Amino acid sequence: MQSPADRQDRHEYPAHWEADVVLRDGGTARIRPITVDDADRLVSFYEQVSDESKYYRFFAPYPRLSAKDVHRFTHHDFVDRVGLAATIGGEFIATVRYDRIGTDGMPASVPADEAEVAFLVQDAHQGRGVASALLEHVAAVARERGIRRFAAEVLPANTKMIKVFTDAGYTQKRSFEDGVVRLEFDLEPTDRSVAVQRAREQRAEARSVRRLLAPGSVAVVGVGRTPGGVGRGVLGNIREAGYRGRLHAVNTAFPEDLEEVDGVPAHRSVRDIDGPVDLAVVAVPAEHVPAVVAECGEHGVQGLVVLSAGYAESGPEGRERQRALVRQARAYGMRIIGPNAFGIINTAPGVRLNASLAPEMPRPGRIGLFAQSGAIGIALLSRLHRRGGGVTGVTGVSTFVSSGNRADVSGNDVLQYWYDDPETDVALMYLETIGNPRKFNRLARRTAAAKPLVVVQGAGSAPQGHAVRATRLPHETVSALLRQAGVIRVDTITELVDAGLLLARQPLPAGPRVAILGNSESLGLLTYDRCLAEGLRPSPPLDLTTGATAEDFHRALSRALADDTCDAVVVTAIPAIGEGSPGDAELAEALRSAAAGVSGKPVLVVHVELGGLAEALSAAASTAPQAVPQDPGAAGAAPQAPPAQGAANAAPRSAQAPAVPDATGPARPPRRPPAAVPEAPAVPPVDGARLIPAYPAAERAVRALAEAVKYGQWRREATDPGKVPEYEDIDERGAAELIGVLLERGQGLTLGEAETCELLGKYGIPVRRALPAPSPDAAAEAARTLGYPVALKATAPHLRHRADLGGVRLDLANEEQLRRSYAELTELFGKPDELRPVVQAMAPRGVDTVVRAVIDPAAGAVLSFGLAGAPSQLLGDMAHRLVPVTDRDATSLVRSIRTAPLLFGWRGSTPADTPALERLLLRVSRLVDDHPEVVAVTLEPVVVAQRGVSVLGATVRLAPPPARDDLGPRTMPAY
């Protein structure tokens, strides 16, 4: 008989276990199963492990592996014996294996559910988080193969490996016997293990981006010998920005005796560079990129910015070229921005990196920018260039990433970096697609709890070259889910910049109450109207008249900010002509000093053709950023170039936001006479005073303020997200058993009425019975069974839920009315077999609503709510929340639709029982969360009466659940 170790492989090679991972230091590695072809790699790997590490692994001196050892460690059945390796450049840097054991500790097979696990990490790679990543993956493999528990024996001195196990967050037991520490831990994920995994993911991905954005040395590959060209241009941009690190120019065509290009050391190959290179900017034709990547990988380059085009954006051949590029770079542990990228920028004083096609370095500031499109990146930088020095002064850029085809580094990676980047206060993103909506939503929620995240989301199809997962959710639904996560969702890049400038330098408003003051009555009234249209609560505008002085503005603003009934102030200003009228600088200083005296309330300015005021607002009290002094000893240092006018005009016309028409609001407030503003004490300038954003139109300022109000409200509510309630009458096990039986009939099953009622009933969701009525006599019999009064409904697809077509008869009190109604329906719409009539007991009158839940493969389970009929079908008035829904989510879901007043006593009607409706929403959420096989639920109509709710119709669809990669081990997108 063969021993388990001698059996042939019982399973095919599990290719789905292969994965690329980001390590603790930001580098990457590939994890894959070990096969019989890895014998030489295993031996070479073992030879590079220190004697101490070998001793810790085998509990005795073990200088080399025997042929039997090599056979054992490379022959696996991928069920009871599994080995995984972490590789870089095709060579092993670490291994892990498990062997299934029985209760006696001896080798075993299924159904034994315990396994021994052991690791070995090459000394040069210890401390990089390799073992932690391997543990996540081997645990996932073990769970897939029916193993529920790992056991590991570790020497007490091997503290690093003990820490790997204890820090993983699994439920574990620890014992000590015969000089060995024995650890046993369950593999079922816990809240703590998931939290640990995601914290490690954040640190690793953030560091991988940090290595790209703050390199100590940069090589530009593809620098032309003569001026012009992309490579030469990028080299000049890096040098002129005052990059603080070492800079190198590389071109294989350089003459051997060429030492410098534009004062930068020149090399024919990356291999010729003395010392490390952290970042390579690649600007060579696509066919030459693989050779450059190989050179960089062999030299130890940490990351690449690939500007070269000719990849997935160019068609199928380019798409395959892009896949090969990613695989090649990851084999060397490098990350890629691009290909077809516009580049990256970091304005931090210690970095000063402009590795992009932007000819001018943006002003330093607190805003992070991410754009997938180079054209949109240009437009964003142009707007901030025009407005950063004037409108807010300041508020320039901390970091900028334009990812091009986004083959590797994505918006999710950059979000991980911005989350704890002390140089970034506000994140602005233009996303043409969201490649991993489930992960983006999770990261966005965490980031938004710490700093504002403003997003423009494209509504079109995925651009070529972006490997994204398809979502079946409508664009509006995805937008609603982003708002639920705290994302400030805007429609244009103009609104993106408007909101970002406000949030970067002003505090969040505590509420929607707005004071308006200025020297133009008309502009004040226009601002008042826009506030009403955006859902704010403005006070009547205070008209200071066109003769107002700077001191008048100062006193009025100080008084408004001191008013406890005010949460924000909008100052309107028009040019004033005449003796004593304030100059731009004088007015700006008056506003700034008044705002400095009261913290916690935002101030915005609406100005009309006052370019000078915008500039003065940024320069008041010398708060504008000063030029960064150049270090004469830094490589490539050059004097700071003045702002270029050309950059300001680089935005394409298509990127401009359309004009927003003024909305007509409620009646304007009564006109107030010019105010006599009381004297206010002068406020001395404060160091680091807030800079005041100014806007050229009232609608733009108010829209930005409204987004800040909503975001501030979300931040306050996010501190207490609510809870998912437990209901004692839910039969989760019974529902699981029923679903299992039903799915045995086949995949993609829409349940019948009886099965739907049975399944929903197990979650405390009763559905009113509807009995078929194929004839008048059957209808009468059904009514006697249910009891009068009843309703008679046609359920044919073209008449279902269409009471407006006359296919429903309500409140039928007796058999005579029932038969008469039956005759009317058949006369109007056809024979009974065409109408599919049913009889249903009458429900209490109320508001007809619809509740839906669907599982989207990309975004996850989504719960939706709206009023039945025209509001939801014609107007699209539906609200959406991600499952699981908390009690606070359910409350806000009901109130989020535009027609919500109909549920709360609109125009004197009786308020509906919204608490009962919220409980129904929570039960539906629990059903789809507990049982992912329930891929779709529709309850329509749900009648919300004065007391209680009645579900009159329901459909449920079952299918095998879509795979969830957010619960598995950390992986990079597959290529």
Please report which band the strand proportion falls in: under 5%, 5-15%, 15-25%, 25-35%, 35-45% or over 45%: 15-25%
Strand order of the largest sheet: 1-2-3-4-5-6-8-7
Provide the gyration radius in Å. Answer: 33 Å
Biggest sheet details: 8 strands, mixed
Mean pLDDT: 85
Give the end-to-end Cα distance, rounded to a whole number of Å.
Answer: 42 Å
* Discrete helix count: 28
Q: Which residues sit in consecutive blocks of at least 5 with pLDDT less than 50? A: 1-9, 389-393, 620-688
Q: Structural class per helix/strand content?
A: alpha/beta
Shape: globular
Number of strands: 39
Percent of residues in helices: 25-40%
Description:
This protein is α/β, with parallel strands linked by helices and 975 residues long. It has 28 helices and 39 strands. The protein has an eight-stranded mixed β-sheet, sandwiched between helices. The longest helix has 23 residues, at 191-213. The chain is globular. The two termini are 42 Å apart.
Brief synopsis:
By secondary structure, the chain is of the alpha/beta class.
Fold topology:
Layout: E1 19-22, E2 28-33, H1 39-47, H2 51-58, H3 67-74, E3 81-88, E4 91-101, E5 114-121, H4 130-144, E6 149-154, H5 159-166, E7 172-177, E8 180-186, H6 191-213, E9 217-221, H7 230-240, E10 246-250, E11 260-261, E12 264-267, E13 279-282, H8 289-299, E14 303-306, H9 316-331, E15 335-337, E16 343-346, E17 353-356, E18 364-371, H10 374-388, E19 397-402, H11 411-419, E20 426-431, H12 437-448, E21 453-457, H13 475-484, E22 488-490, H14 493-505, E23 513-518, H15 521-533, E24 537-538, E25 542-543, H16 550-562, E26 568-573, H17 584-596, E27 603-607, H18 611-619, H19 645-648, E28 694-695, H20 698-718, H21 732-743, E29 749-750, H22 753-761, E30 770-772, H23 776-786, E31 790-794, E32 808-812, H24 815-829, H25 832-835, E33 837-841, E34 846-856, E35 860-867, H26 870-873, E36 878-882, H27 887-896, H28 914-930, E37 934-945, E38 949-951, E39 954-958
Parallel strand pairs: 5-6, 9-10, 9-13, 10-12, 13-14, 14-15, 18-19, 18-20, 20-21, 21-22, 23-24, 23-25, 23-26, 26-27, 27-28
Antiparallel strand pairs: 1-2, 2-3, 3-4, 4-5, 6-8, 7-8, 11-12, 16-17, 16-19, 29-39, 30-33, 31-32, 31-33, 34-35, 34-37, 35-36, 37-38, 37-39
Helix pairs in contact: 6-11, 8-9, 10-14, 11-12, 14-20, 15-20, 16-17, 17-18, 23-24, 27-28
